[in-house]
Amino acid sequence: MCIALATALALLVPGPVALAADAPTGQGTAVPDASDRKQIELALAQGKFKAGDRRGAMVSLYQGKWYMPKREKVRRCIAKRESGANYRAVSAGGRYRGAYQMSRRLAVGASWMMQREVRRELGAEAKKLVIALRKKPTQQWNRYWQDRAFWTIWHKGKGKSHWRGGGKNCMKRR
After folding, report:
1. Which of 91, 116, 150, 155 has the CA that lies 20 to 30 A from 162?
2. Could you tell me the residue ranges of all domains in the chain?
3. Is the pTM of this model over 0.85?
4. H or E element that contains 41
5. Which of 102, 118, 89 is nearest to 162 (CA)?
6. Cα-flanking dihedrals φ and ψ of residue 103, to 5°?
7. What is the C-alpha separation between 27 and 85, in angstroms, rounded?
């Protein structure tokens, strides 16, 4: 996990960050270590903190291996263009769902792509959460899982074709 994750996730926790390790810095605040970041990410995977908020654009809750900080504005633009950044959105015909308007096939495929990595990073409990996603419509996935699926599909730009014009309109402005 990148350092940006610790910073971003610390902002998502209500009140001062005082986690298990409780390692204070010179300013009297706790800096999450790898174990704490894992606990926070697992909590997000379970729908806690900001993961339950499924409206509006904010920083990606997933900031792991596939996250690209330099493409964060593109991700937000795609979410706004596709669904108005509404993680509960369903297209008029019902075929595309969630903030990124993924088809069922794409969403289920993303869950398979995420499964091994989630098991390795977050453990067996989180792997069960990924498996359970396959039984849920994408718009019912919490913000963390939809963001993680986006970055997994985006795959450092190789999967950008899954969004109209590969996010071209969003990329032009960035």
Report:
1. 116
2. 3-172
3. no
4. helix 34-45
5. 102
6. -70, 165
7. 35
